[in-house]
Design a protein that fits this description.
- The structure is a single chain.
- It contains 1 helix and 9 strands, in the order H-E-E-E-E-E-E-E-E-E.
- The longest helix is centred in the first third of the chain and has 41 residues.
- It has a 4-stranded mixed β-sheet with strand order 2-1-4-7, with no helix packed on it.
- Strand 1 and strand 2 form a beta hairpin.
- The chain folds into 2 domains: 44 residues; 97 residues, Sandwich (Immunoglobulin-like).
- With 152 residues, the protein is an alpha/beta fold.
- Bound molecules: copper (II) ion.
- The site of copper (II) ion has 7 residues, from loops.
């Protein structure tokens, strides 16, 4: 083999290496991008459409409510919109969650990965307990409870 053709061979091998490195890098970047997208999609909540009035958005999953304390004003209508972050594959409650206050006669049940709401007007100021009686031990479970404070 002549010196020239040896050099040409070396050059083409180097070019092949570079192309392979670039292709590998592109594959790695694509995989990382897809993984990042799936992670963000899995952990971010679906956007809720805006609603009129005083709307309090509460989300629940097997870990409990995302709000442990909610303050509202007596005599003013309020809408509590409950979103369940769990899917229907949950054996305990089937992915449904509840937001209920016995004294006020309010009970909202959100379907798996969906939401539901109730509008009510608390008349009397006071401190109430809201709870979910559907999943994981029901209302006895301290993580599925919160405090509703009705200010006078
Ligand atoms: Cu629950």
């Amino acid at each position: 083999m002549s010196r020239k053709s040896r050099e040409a061979l070396r050059h083409s091998q180097q070019r092949q290496k570079r192309v392979r490195a670039i292709a590998f890098g592109a594959v790695v970047l694509t995989v990382l991008a897809v993984a990042a997208y799936l992670l963000v999609a899995a952990f971010s909540r679906p956007a809720l459409p805006p609603m009129a009035g005083n709307v309090i958005d509460v989300a629940a999953d097997m870990g409990g409510f995302d709000q442990k304390e909610i303050r509202v004003k007596a005599g003013q209508p309020v809408t509590v919109r409950l979103t369940s972050l769990d899917n229907s594959h949950h054996t305990d409650g089937g992915g449904k969650h509840q937001w209920a206050v016995d004294e006020l006669g309010v009970s909202v049940v959100a379907p798996p990965e969906g939401n539901s709401y109730a509008t009510f007007t608390p008349v009397k100021a006071g401190t109430y307990t809201y709870y979910c009686d559907i999943c994981c031990g029901g209302r006895a479970n301290p993580s599925m409870q919160g405090t509703l404070i009705v200010e006078g």
